[in-house]
Amino acid sequence: MGDQNSAPARLVPLLDQFDFGCERLLGRIGGPVVDSGNGVEVEAAPMTDAEYLWEPVPDCWSVRRRADGPGARATLLVGAGDWGRDSAESPHPEPPPFTTLAWRLTHLSEMLAVRADHVNGTHTLTKDDYRAGPDAAGSIARFSAAAASWRDALLAADDTVLDRVGHCTYPHGSDPEEPFVDVIWWVNQEVLHHGAEIALLRDLFRDGRFAAGPTARDHEG
Fold this sequence. Notes:
Blueprint: H1 12-30, E1 33-35, E2 41-43, H2 49-52, E3 63-65, E4 76-78, E5 83-87, H3 101-120, H4 136-155, H5 159-162, H6 180-206
Antiparallel strand pairs: 1-2, 3-5, 4-5
Helix pairs in contact: 1-4, 1-6, 3-4, 3-6
């Protein structure tokens, strides 16, 4: 495995962008501080379980107990274990359901973990193998681990690999038909745009006019 100093020149800015996006997101959800974007550190309280599961509008898609079944307009709970992420077979509902912070962070972590496996792992994992959970701290730790796994996959790539079509065999997208460098770009934009969504949900929850706690089922236990 290589390191950043030996990475192909065209990978370096993509790797830097990924690192910065993950660092800001982890700071934003885990605290104690987050980079404001210009190098200034701003205080950030760790995300709570109530915030993680907050449903700001009716009929959100979220992370739920498997025994409770999927939420409104969802037909299945994706993942392994006692908890799963709301989903539906294609075509997905229109308009798209509003998704909670738990849904967005779990989706992001799942995507990174499964994609990493399909680059330099077993090439067997699917969304059904990913274990979601109801607690914020556990979800933050799972995101951190998934991001590290994907970063390891990037550091193993040389210039030839970046152009290799199908280097990533991720089964839930077009990765097998794409050059690896295009997949890397796609993953970066997923981290950036979902990270921004998560940050906005944190801001809304912090404002007492919006945050009344979870609105659907009891998630304790």
